[in-house]
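Is this the right way to post structure tokens for a design question? Let me know if I should format differently. Anyway, here goes:
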């Protein structure tokens, strides 16, 4: 991800049920960087075949522009996944399949073999695999999962199913339970500090992604009508270093994209850091002061990433 020409923007990954053609067409017209057509949780069992047909026809018939196109297939071991991969793998417009409830490397290796046999010669680039980490076992195994196939391009955190997997008492997808807080005695007063249920799984997924050169995508904010929460939770993921976030409604796209797009001030400071470090190198120094802050090569790498994101946004 060091080259803006190679970096693929996935700030906003819009989820849409593949069996709802009107919603799929709306997603095609949206400003999302990426769209995933869902065959899994958003589709009832009675409509799985219709959803697969909807996904294949939408990929072939609709104008998706420059969007990254993904399809979330059903989980490994389901009676649907092999048929889904056979139908989807040859479609050139499909960039990646999302494997839900990823838990064991052997399962991903088996899915890779399914793709190998189904892909054919029509594609211009190999079909990638995105892994959805959304169970306790999946999180425990995330480092092994991240290197289980050369096709893997990204790790996604499935916030809703993960909360359910660990037994969290939360009714809001992506949010922490109201009772998850630290109560401290400060003098004669009790002070409550809200805690973040997703701080650990987010960091675990992000570190695994970065260790193996993959993109990291955070799960959605379920309160799609709440722009403040949508923006705040996206800003948290962006600040941590995620590449993007799933969104479940087009109304969340603008706020989420804004959170992952470097501001003019960030870009200007990053440019000053790069210029200053280039001058320091020419002078034989490894550190320099910029705006009253000591800057070294670690700052340079962070600044280069910000500039890369800005360059990718302008393409």
């Amino acid at each position: 991800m060091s080259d803006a020409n190679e970096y693929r923007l996935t700030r906003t990954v819009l989820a849409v049920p593949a069996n709802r053609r009107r919603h799929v067409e709306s997603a095609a017209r949206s400003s999302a960087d990426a769209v995933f057509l869902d065959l899994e949780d958003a589709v009832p069992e009675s409509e799985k075949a219709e959803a697969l047909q909807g996904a294949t026809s939408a990929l072939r018939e609709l104008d998706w522009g420059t969007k990254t196109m993904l399809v979330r297939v059903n989980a490994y071991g389901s009676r649907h996944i092999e048929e889904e991969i056979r139908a989807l793998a040859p479609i050139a417009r499909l960039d990646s399949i999302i494997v839900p409830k990823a838990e064991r490397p052997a399962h991903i290796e088996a899915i890779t073999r399914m793709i190998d046999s189904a892909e054919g010669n029509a594609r211009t680039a190999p079909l990638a695999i995105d892994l959805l980490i959304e169970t306790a076992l999946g999180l425990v195994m995330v480092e092994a999962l991240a290197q289980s196939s050369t096709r893997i391009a990204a790790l996604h955190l499935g916030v809703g199913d993960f909360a359910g997997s660990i037994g969290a008492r939360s009714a809001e997808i992506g949010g922490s339970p109201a009772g998850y807080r630290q109560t401290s005695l400060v003098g004669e007063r009790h002070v409550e500090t809200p805690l973040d249920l997703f701080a650990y799984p987010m960091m675990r997924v992000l570190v695994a992604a970065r260790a193996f050169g993959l993109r990291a995508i955070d799960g959605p904010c379920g309160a799609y009508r709440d722009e403040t929460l949508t923006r705040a939770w996206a800003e948290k993921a962006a600040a941590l270093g995620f590449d993007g976030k799933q969104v479940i409604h087009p109304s969340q796209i603008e706020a989420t994209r804004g959170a992952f797009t470097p501001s003019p001030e960030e870009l200007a400071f990053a440019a000053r850091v790069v210029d200053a470090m280039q001058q320091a190198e020419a002078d034989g120094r490894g550190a320099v002061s910029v705006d009253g802050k000591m800057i070294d090569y670690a700052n340079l790498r962070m600044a280069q990433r910000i500039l890369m994101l800005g360059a990718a946004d302008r393409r």
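Format looks fine. Someone answered above. Worth noting: The two ends are 15 Å apart (CA to CA). The chain has two domains: 12-261, 265-314.
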